[in-house]
UniProtKB/TrEMBL annotation:
It comes from Streptomyces netropsis. Keywords: Transferase. The keyword Mitochondrion does not apply. This is Gamma-glutamylcyclotransferase (GGCT)/AIG2-like uncharacterized protein YtfP. Residues 13-142 form the Gamma-glutamylcyclotransferase AIG2-like domain. Pfam families: GGACT. One of its GO terms (molecular function) is transferase activity. Gene3D superfamilies: Gamma-glutamyl cyclotransferase-like. The lineage of its organism: Bacteria, Bacillati, Actinomycetota, Actinomycetes, Kitasatosporales.
Length: 143
């Protein structure tokens, strides 16, 4: 399931690469600015290797990506989401986007489902990755 909620909706963010706890962009942008971080999975997506960081691409439902569900601190939410958008090369409606920020159902390891923002490779890049990219076995960039 995928949809684009209103810009004012404050969802947690599912991260699967350099924004995961212990990684460089987490330390730079998120450390000390979140209220919760927990391991989680995203169904219906395939992870591809990229130069320096991974790309998630929509895939069949049985495909799974491992990552972390990160809840941004409410008092800094807008600032942090804008910083994440900039890092991911995302601007609403821009055809040059590297990623698109979409709302998806994420499965925290503790159980249940949570609606979260996920950065997926933009369509033109996703097509190229499906044709010529290198899928990451197991859907976990840290392995």
């Amino acid at each position: 399931m995928s949809s684009q909620p209103g810009a004012a909706e404050r969802l947690p963010v599912f991260v699967y690469g350099t924004l995961r706890p212990g990684q460089g962009n987490h330390a730079r942008l998120l450390r000390g600015r979140t209220t919760a971080e927990e391991p989680a999975r995203l169904r219906g997506a395939q992870l591809y290797a990229g130069p320096g960081y991974p790309y998630a691409v929509t895939a069949p439902a049985e495909s799974v990506i491992r990552g972390d569900l990160v809840t941004l601190a409410p008092v800094r939410y807008a600032e942090l989401l804008a910083a994440l958008d900039e890092l991911e090369g995302y601007a609403p409606g821009d055809p040059r986007n590297l990623y698109e920020r979409v709302a998806r159902e994420v499965l925290p390891d503790g159980g249940g489902t949570v609606r979260a923002w996920v950065y997926l490779a933009a369509d033109r890049l996703a097509r190229r990755l499906r044709d010529d990219g290198t899928p990451l076995p197991g859907g976990d960039w840290l392995r």
